[in-house]
Amino acid sequence: MSAEDSLQLNFFVGDEKTTKRKQSYSKKRGTRIKQRKQEKTVSRLEKDKSKNSQSEKSSQITEEEKSSESYRKKIRDDSPSKSSAGVSPHLKRKQTEDSTEVPHKKERHENKVFISSLFRFNPEIPSVERSVVSKKTEEMFSSKDFKDLDLHPFMTTNLEERFQITQMTTVQQRAIPHLMSGRDVMVKSQTGSGKTLTFAVPVVQHLQSLTPKISRMDGVLALVIVPTRELVIQCFETFKRLVNPFQWVVPGCLMGGEKRKSEKARLRKGMNILVCTPGRLLDHIRNTNSLSLSKVKWLVLDEADRLLDLGYEKDVGEIINALDTESHRQTVLLSATLSEGVERLAGMSLTDPLRIDVSNAEEENSQSNSESSKTQKNENFVVPEKLRQSFVITPCKLRLMTLTAFILLKMKMMTSPGKMVVFLSTQDSVEFHYKLMKHFFGGEEVEDNPNLAEEGDVDFFKLHGEMPQKERTKVYQEFSSAKTGVLFCTNVASRGLDLPDVRWIVQYTTPGAVQDYVHRVGRTARVGKQGHALLFIMPAEVEYLKSLSGHGISMEEINMADILKTLIIAVQDMVSDSDRKRMPPKMYEECATYIQNCFENFVVEDKEMSEMAKKAFQSFVRAYATYPSDLKTIFHVRNLHLGHLAKSFGLREAPSNINDKRGKPKTFSKKKQSRRDRFGSEKSGFKTPSFSSQAISEFSSGLSSGRLPKKKH
Ligand SMILES: Nc1ncnc2c1ncn2[C@@H]1O[C@H](COP(=O)(O)OP(=O)(O)OP(=O)(O)O)[C@@H](O)[C@H]1O
């Protein structure tokens, strides 16, 4: 844990560093009053500290903090919910059967609508025992340098100068010599271990060495197929840098969302290394005469299992059939997770392949009968050694507040905040959370001049498959080069993306397949760097943790209350003057309620936001219904409390009202309403699309308009 991370919770107790930070935080807004209020809040909290009980749960934020006196003080200070002792008198008066009950909002704030308490009627947070996990590990770096390979000297100099790379990673050391000797290889190696250079270096080494020298008019000699457009860009960029000393080798790319006409023109000019998504390539194979694949000497299928997940198996088969079977061709399949389907793909496209699994010391021929050559159901996956994984159990109603608190904790209350990627289940959900967070914490937009952005504001980004390609590329590039910020995204960013210096991966919705979990968390802790991951789960979903630990994934629990306490500081920025004059919220339950109200007011008052929230809610439910059948017992729509879920989208109406076109709330008997809350209404429009249609639209190609049919890229 960095020193900076350990700052986070000390923030509440008023040590010297904390006080300074709080002061500057407030100054940024130019609100001296707020600062005084904060100081008051802290001192009030300090007065109460000895009376409160200590939080029982461990918190991963926190090993260091737990050992520090200030942390222990904080836990005591900020845990009024555990006991009525220490609760300030005005709250004590209000407490009834539920010690976490907060005063009626009408008394404290100026809300016109009654809003049920965030902290009442939530399912209990189950205690989760830490299971013993047998972890698989992989050594990241080898003892060999690129210089030890028989590469062109310009290649090694280029790697040193442009990539700042001399030493090979283990996967590179094990696979590159075989690839240079002409073998077909299947490679399995952890995320962020340098698989791109594992195939790119031998491809460029080979093409630059051909005599007579190749020219762009020789056409496509190496074909690299990847599942998403961002990966096309990333891989193409790597090739561009790699061929720099060998200008006669020309890389190019094709991907959905780009203009076909300009792609055709580029194909006519000729390119030797072609990086593409399968759908768009197939489109050109069918419709572009100038594209010839008859000379292809290298076929690379990166993220091979993903290519199959997306239903591309038939497309990839068609592409392989379009290649000339007579000429010798080398094929490489790579992924951090190789599924059973990949074996089929291997059978289709590889000749006498070598299987390299970096977690196994031995290389194997694919025909080997050994157990490790078969994909096992309970296979242990390897995650980066320096990745610290954690989970937080959050009742549905409190999800939005916990996410908000976590973002603010990591982005506003750190001296150097770093970058965070938040995975959500649907595009609508990305749109909603992006707009909401930007509105409250993103500050004013200052066109083309980020330097004018107010200090303390958070930079938010969004990425999903329905965005226009231009915007997708812009966001990908901006977030890549940003020093700090939060990217809200769907699974479209889960595979292969090498976004520098991402410190936190937050999975706000569980990914389903464990493979997806592994790829998502793999966007951090790359090439031996430190990284953190946080998984949100609801109380009814805790069984999922067993499923993860069954695959060798070990996690620590972060206490939700510890995260929510961030709001005590954050709320200072949000309270209106009138609320400040009365009594500012000062315990985390109050603060969460206050901020939730602010969000709900915004959703109610802003028509566009209101629509977005409804769409996000509906799409969440639809996506929830598409978990694979083996996880249905854990993630079943009927386990969702739709009323609580609505709150997590800032909606006050019961979900049964959401699709009421007349906009008038429908009223139902209590019993009926509760049933509708749990099961939804048949008329509510929560139709369950198939898993594949969800996934495909996420990775849409942009070739067709509107919602995309199957398999286009
Ligand atoms: N030998 C090396 N030494 C240091 N950095 C390296 C080395 N090889 C590659 N890298 C860098 O490591 C980062 C991750 O590489 P890459 O994206 O190829 O990983 P990957 O194994 O394909 O990950 P994923 O499975 O997530 O797609 C890149 O920034 C790359 O430049």
Automatic annotation (TrEMBL):
Residues 176-356 form the Helicase ATP-binding domain. Residues 1-109, 654-713 are annotated as: Disordered. Pfam families: CTE_SPB4 (PF13959), DEAD (PF00270), Helicase_C (PF00271). Keywords: ATP-binding, Helicase, Hydrolase, Nucleotide-binding, RNA-binding. One of its GO terms (molecular function) is RNA binding. A motif (Q motif) lies at residues 144-173. Coiled coil: none annotated. Residues 19-35, 663-675 have a biased composition (Basic residues). SMART domains: DEXDc (SM00487), DUF4217 (SM01178), HELICc (SM00490). Residues 36-51, 63-80, 94-109, 676-685 have a biased composition (Basic and acidic residues). It is an enzyme of class 3 (hydrolase). It catalyses: ATP + H2O = ADP + phosphate + H(+). Its EC number is 3.6.4.13. InterPro entries: DEAD/DEAH_box_helicase_dom, Helicase_ATP-bd, Helicase_C-like, P-loop_NTPase, RNA-helicase_DEAD-box_CS, RNA_helicase_DEAD_Q_motif, SPB4-like_CTE. Residues 408-575 form the Helicase C-terminal domain. Belongs to the DEAD box helicase family. The Q motif is unique to and characteristic of the DEAD box family of RNA helicases and controls ATP binding and hydrolysis. RNA helicase. This is ATP-dependent RNA helicase.
